[in-house]
């Protein structure tokens, strides 16, 4: 084969590879596109913090493209928050002043080594951590990656030590649990927007909330969970804890009611006994 043919073959292989790159059904952290460089592979309209190479996001409730809607929310968080790196000179980027950076990666499924015994939860956590380390988008570990694998039904947030001071594991678990209302009806965009906006609020930024990312707090949220320690309210066992507490309160209430009933019964019995004795005494006196 001539040198020219070899070059042509390499070009063809390269073009075929590029053509398939955006249509991989599964990825590993090394093959996942960089949305700040290969934004077209991420199906983004421009350089973005969102990557959806398989076009899995549905349009937002207002009809806006899902990637664009998330892009706007992430950019808002980045520009509306302040650098949290302290006063160390040179750490905060003076040429592009910004605060926390949250990126979103959507994939159809995670590439799994058939020889691996790891669970999907372990794999997606490794995937998210690897993306955060590979792209290094923070200034002082103040970045996070939100990864969603559609077919695996798994979502994971990887946080740098700085941003993790506010996005605690308990808080992340609570937000992920609440987002299931969207995931359960395959509203992937709504679910991710909800998570992003909840994170933004926790980081001190008022999000641009749309109708599709608002969940009105229930009576329980307003009157119970918002008034107890976050460790309890964010616990996956919170309803069991509530049932246990209510059961204890019910037993205490029953005990109090029974005690009051017994006291009233005893007082009534004593009063009746005293009245009966008085009546007998008068009858006895009448006979004289």
TrEMBL record:
Pfam families, per database record: MOLO1
Keywords: Membrane, Signal, Transmembrane, Transmembrane helix
TM region positions: 237-261
Top-rank taxon, per record: Eukaryota
Presence of the UniProt keyword Membrane in the record: yes
Annotated signal peptide: 1-21
Recorded GO CC terms: acetylcholine-gated channel complex
PANTHER family linked: GROUND-LIKE DOMAIN-CONTAINING PROTEIN, PROTEIN CBG04600
Protein name: Uncharacterized protein
């Amino acid at each position: 084969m001539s040198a020219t043919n070899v070059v042509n073959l390499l070009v063809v292989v390269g073009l075929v590879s590029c053509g398939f790159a955006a249509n991989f059904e599964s990825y590993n952290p090394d093959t996942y596109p960089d949305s700040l460089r290969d934004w077209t592979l991420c199906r983004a309209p421009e350089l973005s913090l969102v990557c959806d190479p398989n076009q899995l996001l549905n349009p937002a409730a207002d009809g806006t493209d899902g990637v664009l809607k998330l892009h706007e929310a992430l950019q808002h968080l980045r520009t509306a928050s302040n650098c949290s790196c302290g006063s160390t000179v040179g750490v905060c980027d003076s040429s592009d002043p910004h605060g926390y950076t949250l990126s979103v990666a959507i994939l159809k499924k995670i590439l799994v080594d058939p020889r691996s015994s790891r669970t999907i939860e372990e794999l997606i956590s490794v995937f998210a951590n690897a993306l955060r380390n590979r792209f290094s988008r923070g200034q002082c570990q103040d970045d996070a990656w939100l990864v969603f694998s559609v077919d695996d039904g798994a979502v994971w947030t990887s946080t740098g030590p700085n941003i993790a001071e506010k996005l605690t594991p308990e808080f992340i678990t609570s937000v992920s649990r609440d987002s299931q209302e969207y995931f359960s009806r395959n509203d992937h965009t709504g679910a991710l927007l909800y998570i992003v906006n909840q994170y933004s609020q926790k980081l001190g930024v008022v999000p641009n909330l749309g109708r599709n990312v608002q969940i009105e707090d229930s009576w329980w949220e307003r009157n119970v969970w918002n008034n107890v320690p976050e460790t309890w309210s964010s616990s996956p066992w919170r309803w069991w804890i509530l049932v246990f507490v209510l059961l204890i309160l019910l037993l205490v209430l029953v005990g109090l009611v029974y005690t009051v009933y017994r006291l009233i019964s005893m007082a009534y019995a004593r009063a009746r006994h005293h009245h009966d004795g008085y009546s007998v005494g008068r009858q006895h006196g009448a006979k004289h």
